[in-house]
Amino acid sequence: MKYLKNTNVSITSAQQQQQQQQHQLVEEEAEETNDCQSNCGETRQREYSICSSIGEQTDEEQYSNHLDEMIKNLLLKRENKTCSDCGSPDPVYASIYYKVIICSGCAVIHRKCLKSKVQSINLSNEWSLDEYQSFSNTNNMIENESWEKYLPLSYIKPTFGDSSLLKENWILTKYIHQSFTSEKNLSKLKMDLTEGWIVKKGKVVKNWKKRWLRLCQVGDKKKLNYYRGPTETTACGSIDLCQDGGAIQIDCINDNGKRTNCFVICTSKRRYLISCPSQEEMFRWIQLIRSSTNYYNQFKNIPQQITI
Question: Is 27 helix (H, G, I), strand (E, B) or coil?
Fold first, then answer.
């Protein structure tokens, strides 16, 4: 009997110890579960933060890519396929202040002479949203309807083959003087005036002589006669602007001396270098001569070459 009692005590102690171990195991599992949940929560929080950060970067990249696409779409407009100022094909620059799409040559003039900010359309990362929005609702045709509203029908705009000086003269007249935005401004150019003082470089003796230049109509042709004064009736010489053997070439030119506002007339016989009292008068004479030669060449069905 004594042995059985001791056995029962041992069994009871073993059961209690086993229950304690199970209880302890349950508690440890519970702690591990809590720790795991805590760690998972922290992990999820970190993942959420990372995902949020990635999401913000993605939105920014998407915005940048969208803006890049919108800016490049400016070139897809039919009205922007050529330079606003010289007609050069496939322009890739924008004059921000004047809201026109221009070629690289005219971009240099806009930046240097007009002090306008010029942006490359291929470098969209340099654009701001405000700059894009200023171009989104306009195009070269719309802007030129304002800048060239009173441009005479006979006026010959510079082409991409003309010299940078001729383009510069045109751009200054168009934007700075705003000569074609109103009838009042256009009248200041005196485009109907066909005579005036100039200084001409001699053919043999390379000195400069003051002469009175007059555009004259002779039959269906036009000539430039130059005199010693406005009341003279006998010309010192003349320049035939309507030659059947070849086209007249005229362009702005820089004189290495002290003369300013110079332009050159090249015929099949001679090269004439002429200096005007002002930039406006040089502009007027160039247009008068270009219009005269263009009309004659169209009349004779002869292609005109006006570049040097």
Answer: helix
Nearest to 246 by CA among 168, 304, 177: 304
- Radius of gyration for the chain, computed over Cα atoms and rounded to the nearest angstrom: 41
Looking at residue 75, the DSSP 8-state letter turns out to be G
How far, CA to CA in Å, does 143 sit from each of 15, 80, 109, 134, 181? 98, 11, 18, 12, 11
Put residue 178 in one of left, alpha, beta given phi > 0 → left and psi -120 to 50 → alpha.
Answer: left
Report the predicted TM-score, pTM, of the whole model to 2 decimal places.
0.71
Residue owning tokens 């990362």:
125
Q: One-letter amino acid identity for 8?
A: N
d(CA 9, CA 3) in angstroms, rounded, equals 10
pLDDT tens by residue, the chain, 308 residues: 444 344 444 445 545 555 555 555 445 545 544 554 454 445 445 444 434 444 454 566 665 677 788 888 899 999 999 999 999 999 999 999 999 999 999 999 999 999 999 999 988 788 888 999 999 999 999 999 999 999 998 888 999 888 899 999 999 999 999 999 999 999 998 888 999 999 999 887 789 999 999 999 887 788 999 999 999 999 999 998 876 555 688 888 887 667 889 999 998 888 999 999 998 899 999 999 988 887 555 545 444 444 43
Strand partners of residue 264: 251, 273
As a whole number of Å, the end-to-end CA separation of the chain is 135
> 244 vs 21, 145, 217, 240, 300, CA distance in Å?
120, 36, 16, 10, 9
* Residues 243, 246, 250: CA angle, nearest 5 degrees: 85
Q: What is the DSSP letter of 89?
A: B
